[in-house]
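Standup notes
- HV: blocked on the assembly model, inputs below
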Amino acid sequence: MTKTLSLLAALALSLGVQFAAFANTIAPDALVKGVTDDVIAIVRQDKAIQSGDTRKAVDLVETKVLPYFDFAHMTRLAVGKDWRQANPEQKAALTHEFKTLLVRTYSNALTQYRNQVIDFKPLKAKPEDTDVIVRTEVRQAGAKPVQIDYALDKQGDSWKVYDVMVAGVSLVTNYRDSFGQEVRAGGIDGLIKSLKDKNKQLETTVQAKK
Amino acid sequence: MMKNNKSKLQRQALLRGAATLALGLGLSACAATGGGHPKDPLEPLNRATFQFNEQADRFVIRPVAQVYDYVPLPVKTVVGNFFGNLGDVWIGVNNLLQGKVAEALSDGGRVLVNSTVGLLGAFDIATELGLEKHDEDLGQTLGVWGVGEGPFLVLPILGSSNFRDTLGLVGDIYADPVIQHKEVATRNSATGLRLIHKRSVLLGADTTAEQAALDKYSYMRSFYMQYRLNQVYDGSPPRVKDFDDEEAQADQPAAPALAAADSATPSPTSATKESQE
């Protein structure tokens, strides 16, 4: 019990320190590197995550990664021009469901991490830029490296990720076609419902796995 | 005589292709009212092929790849390196065709090093020496030359493609040392092994795609289009203005309210966590 408590305290402290560290306009490439290194270090030591404990992976992503993502921006980007016909409540619902879907899916992907090495490419940006791409490459024994790029924009003092591209494919805009289909078929509410159903379905598979 | 036979076969193949195309166009004409994807006029035909591929993958290809995946990693690496080395020749030719002489020379160097010091391609010594592996094919070369991608097309077993890349694929097959190998038994087993090896690399990524997609067909279609564009531009496609997003951005005042509403909604993950404890 005390062990758990001290662990929690340590975690809270380290998170606090981290927030403080990242709050002062840390450069976008340093931010991506910091978060990635952090997460990898944890996954490397966590046997539960490695053996497919999705819930634990979701927790890790929610505490370590989410603060640096702008999900409202991501959702707007994924929905595209139909975003305008959504009212504020629908926008909130869409953002919430899309966030859940992305977190669920990519936390699961984290459980597949096996000693890959991540290379960070030098940042090509001018100091006055407010929209940059941080390029990385994931190397793995016996396979071609996979390119993973992060698009960030500057909001006030801090940088936020609004798009992730794997092998040049945006994990965000890749949804636009299917979201458009859903909106044409059942309006914004139809899209919200499809996302909700998808998330429910994923939740049950997570539970079945446990 | 031989020549005559061959051209007859080619004519037949052409006719069959044309018939499939006509069928596809006819089908899509019936369904064209739904405001489908502008680059996918053959959507109904493509969806049918996609379904067929999904079943073939689910019941045959994926299970075989899963069994293959039990092979120890060093052996799988050798398999990958061997086929990779054979492929580097054509990759070099394509780099040359695209005017990238330095890359082509590097590919030639790779083949030289890996075929000798790398024991007939079993080991990728060239990468260790800093000669990076490239990824080129005739479809990409046509893309670099300015050939448009044409309609999206799902090929049986091989999956997502488009008219340009299918044309490129025909050239790739003509130049492929495995498929052009004379001895039929070796050719077939090598082609099969390569397919299964390639599929096994995607194990894991396939479940992620399955989980991520609302409609897997349109997800994979969009994926392929972005993926190929990225390949044609060797990893850095031009950043174009996103008109759909510009339009979406037109009304920004809702943003603060939205952020507040989102944090007010309890997340389903935390809710279920509580109920489990």
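- HV (later): unblocked. The two ends of chain B are 79 Å apart (CA to CA). Strands of chain B lie at 152-155, 159-162.
- Next: hand off to the docking folks.
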